[in-house]
Amino acid sequence: MALLELALQGFSIFGLVLFVVLWLMHFMSIIYARLYLNKKTVDKQPYSKLPGVSLLKPLKGVDSNLINNLESFFELDYPKYEVLLCVQDHDDPAIDVCKKLLGKYPNVDARLFIGGKKIGINPKINNLMPGYEVAKYDLIWICDSGILVKPDTLTDMANQMTVEF
Fold first, then answer.
1. What's the pLDDT tens digit per position in 131-160?
2. Do the Cβ atoms of 84 and 54 come closer than 8 Å?
3. What angle do CA 137, 114, 86 make, to 5 degrees?
């Protein structure tokens, strides 16, 4: 009986030590994440010197969040950008959503392109070509219609880019 009690005490001490070690590892990972992974870049470019960005949005059909997702791109806090909405078919219901947003945000540099250009076998690339060909800026962000962004998303992305891109 004494041997059984000794074995149980040994297992309980082992379990307690394992619990403490795992808890400490978890706690250290939280501290590491807070200290090192959430750092904002210190050397941000001045707001007025950020490069212009052309946003290409391939659209097909309407989903439940399309208007909110697209509207978030019209409300970006960024000095120079354009939104190029690309729809393949003339009878696509996404056209009505795009026209509504173009009317709601007349001060945003945005255009709607209907009908693609056959350059290969990928239909999404074919859909984007008319917008790509008239893009004003060297930086191009291709972003699907299911993406919702915060107003500072584009500013953060541009600040992460360097001359070596």
1. 999 999 999 999 998 999 999 899 888 887
2. yes
3. 45
- For 149, the token pair is 């962004």
Write down the residue that tokens 């307690």 correspond to.
16
DSSP letters spanning 103-125: HH-TTS-EEEEES----SS-HHH
**Cα distance between residue 87 and residue 73, in whole Å:** 16
Q: How far apart are CA 79 and CA 160, in angstroms?
A: 16
Half-sphere exposure of 58 (CA within 13 A, CB side): 17
- CA 128-134-139 angle, to 5 degrees, is 80
Q: In whole angstroms, what is the distance from residue 162 CA to residue 165 CA? A: 6
Nearest to 111 by CA among 93, 92, 87: 87
- Residue-wise pLDDT tens digits, 5-46: 888 888 899 989 999 999 999 999 998 888 877 766 556 667
